[in-house]
Specification:
Layout lengths: L9 E5 L4 H11 L3 E6 L24 H6 L4 E4 L5 H12 L3 E4 L3 H6 L4 H7 L4 E6 L14 H7 L23 H24 L3 E6 H7 L2 H9 L16 E3 L4 E4 L4 H10 L14 H6 L1 H12 L4 H10 L4 E3 L3 H5 L2 H6 L2 E6 L3 E6 L23 H6 L6 H9 L4
Parallel strand pairs: 1-2, 1-4, 2-3, 4-5, 5-6
Antiparallel strand pairs: 7-8, 8-9, 10-11
Length: about 400
């Protein structure tokens, strides 16, 4: 854990891949005890996804799994098995929160929908994350992050210097699964507060599609102006572009006229900047095809660091486009101690992103590594639920754990 602000909160996570595990991780990072349930055969699907340590695949070597499941305990359990479902009911009876991201039909078939879970534990907070939510015509549709992203309108909202006739694209990696997990965690903390005040539980129905749309400005652009944002190099203000420089890329975000003129000062106040065509951001946008090569003549002779730091020193909002390598050695990250180390039995000590907040007056603690598959079976089943080691053998043979 990092901070013990949720110390004493008990969470059962029956999640897979990104959204539910990340939701539970956020709460584990704040001190909640999270018991993660995985399939007995092979565990969470993310165990099978790259990147793998030293490019050597294995259920304990996925960087995605190792990050998403820090600070958790891990057990294997099969809720499809009657004995497994009985054990899960025992765990839910003493839990404060139940987090899952399974298809609604599957949860109903396992008798794990909220109506049933509430009967087991009336004060529990149940957080369900699904592609389209628990209601509506899409509620039982199959999906994945690529589908969610495009159903959320993201594909057209990616500005690149490409032919706009090309097909829409989505952001890389699992960013929208993380986004849904963050939305779910925020709501879960609110529900925990309500639980502490009223003593009652509640059900949180989280839609991944809606969590994407919530953060999309393109929807509002269309609603207000009937403008469909797409991949184009022609924006309604300029410069507000990603541009190449000597050793990488920089991103202009000059929202104010004064910032543009500070950038002009950084470039040495070239004569062309006084041209009537470039008098304000609207005009610069209109004549961007003429302005762009003039700026590039200068940026290509200067490094990313020179442009970034020179602009910031003048109060102009220009950012450096960091690679992952740049981020790891960034002096801001080092000063704040953002990256942390965790020692895992299979991979050894590795660096992981920490948490983007600091609590005043509360010491930050070192995180624990993600659990091995079934690592805490004996601790949870024998130490808490009263099963014997012989029982565990029988349960394993029966396919329950």
């Amino acid at each position: 854990m990092f901070y013990k602000v949720l110390d004493g909160v008990k969470i059962i996570e029956y999640g897979n891949m990104v959204s539910a595990p990340f939701c539970a991780k956020i709460l584990a990072d704040m001190g909640a005890e999270v018991i993660k349930i995985e399939k007995p055969c092979c565990g969470d699907d993310s165990r099978g996804l790259e990147p793998f340590m030293n490019d050597s695949p294995g259920v304990e070597r996925s960087g995605l799994f190792l990050y998403l499941n820090m600070n958790k305990k891990g057990i294997t359990l099969n809720p499809e098995n009657p004995a497994g479902r009985k054990i899960l009911n025992q765990l839910l009876k003493n839990a404060d929160v139940f987090i899952e991201n399974n298809p609604p039909k599957r949860m109903k078939a396992f008798k794990l929908n909220y109506t049933r879970v509430k009967q087991i534990n009336p004060r529990i907070v149940m957080t369900s994350i699904t592609p389209f939510g628990q209601t509506g015509p899409y509620k039982d549709y199959m999906s994945c992050e690529l589908i969610n992203a495009h159903m959320g309108g993201v594909g057209y909202d990616s500005v690149r210097e490409v032919d706009i006739s090309q097909e829409p694209i989505k952001a890389p990696a699992h960013i929208f699964g993380f986004q849904a997990g963050l939305s779910a965690a925020t709501a879960t903390v609110g529900a925990l507060f309500q639980q502490s005040v009223t003593g009652e539980g509640t059900y949180l129905d989280v839609s991944e599609q809606e969590s994407i749309i919530q953060n999309m400005h393109s929807v509002f652009r269309y609603y207000y102006n009937k403008q469909v944002v797409n991949r184009t190099d022609v924006l309604d203000r300029a410069p507000a572009h990603i541009l190449p420089c000597k050793d990488g890329y920089i991103h202009h975000a000059n929202m104010e006229e004064s910032e543009w003129w500070r950038f002009v000062d950084l470039m040495g106040n070239p004569e062309w900047a006084k041209n009537e065509l470039f008098k304000d951001y609207t005009s610069r946008s209109q004549f961007w095809d003429a302005l762009k090569p003039l700026i590039l003549d200068w940026t290509k002779d200067h490094t990313m660091d020179e442009i970034y730091r020179g602009s910031q020193a003048r109060g102009s909002a220009i950012g450096a486009l960091y690679t992952a390598k740049d981020v790891l050695v960034d002096r801001q990250m080092e000063e704040r101690g953002f990256f942390v180390e965790a020692d895992h039995p299979e991979t050894g000590k590795l660096k992981y992103p920490g948490v983007p907040y600091r609590f005043s007056g509360i010491p930050r603690e070192n995180p624990s590594a993600a659990p091995l598959l079934g690592q805490n079976n004996e601790e949870i089943y024998c130490g808490r639920l009263g099963y014997s080691k012989r029982d565990l053998v029988k349960l394993s043979e029966a396919g329950a754990i």
